[in-house]
């Protein structure tokens, strides 16, 4: 389909003191609100495969070990409208069952409801990829969706 799955079905954000983070099967997105007029020179962002660090105007926003590994040379950050930092991390494990429960190990954890909604979303995204002729963007899911949902790979077509 020409429109990205998340654009049609929305995202499930995990709210934090500095903004929010959310995920797809392939990526983790981090959005950080910063003071209006912030320049890129005032942002120090280090994106490693296993760790991340963000400072704005000399103040540490977050620093720590990521929940899972990422592809560091595909990570990016942008400053949008001088008031929002958007960081995109590419997951190394891109399976629907790889639903991050927190951004950093032990920090910025999704509560049980948000975690449940994130896992449902990733499972629907997996179904969309496996069945490109169908539109799962408005679908609801119940039952066995933990760990990416049921495995249909053994079924004959």
UniProtKB/TrEMBL annotation:
<dbReference type="GO" id="GO:0007368">
    <property type="term" value="P:determination of left/right symmetry"/>
</dbReference>
<dbReference type="InterPro" id="IPR037902">
    <property type="entry name" value="p23_NUDCD2"/>
</dbReference>
<dbReference type="GO" id="GO:0051082">
    <property type="term" value="F:unfolded protein binding"/>
</dbReference>
<dbReference type="Pfam" id="PF04969">
    <property type="entry name" value="CS"/>
</dbReference>
<dbReference type="GO" id="GO:0006457">
    <property type="term" value="P:protein folding"/>
</dbReference>
<dbReference type="GO" id="GO:0005737">
    <property type="term" value="C:cytoplasm"/>
</dbReference>
<dbReference type="InterPro" id="IPR008978">
    <property type="entry name" value="HSP20-like_chaperone"/>
</dbReference>
<dbReference type="GO" id="GO:0060271">
    <property type="term" value="P:cilium assembly"/>
</dbReference>
<dbReference type="InterPro" id="IPR037898">
    <property type="entry name" value="NudC_fam"/>
</dbReference>
<feature type="domain" description="CS">
    <location>
        <begin position="14"/>
        <end position="104"/>
    </location>
</feature>
<protein>
    <submittedName>
        <fullName>NudC domain containing 2</fullName>
    </submittedName>
</protein>
<dbReference type="InterPro" id="IPR007052">
    <property type="entry name" value="CS_dom"/>
</dbReference>
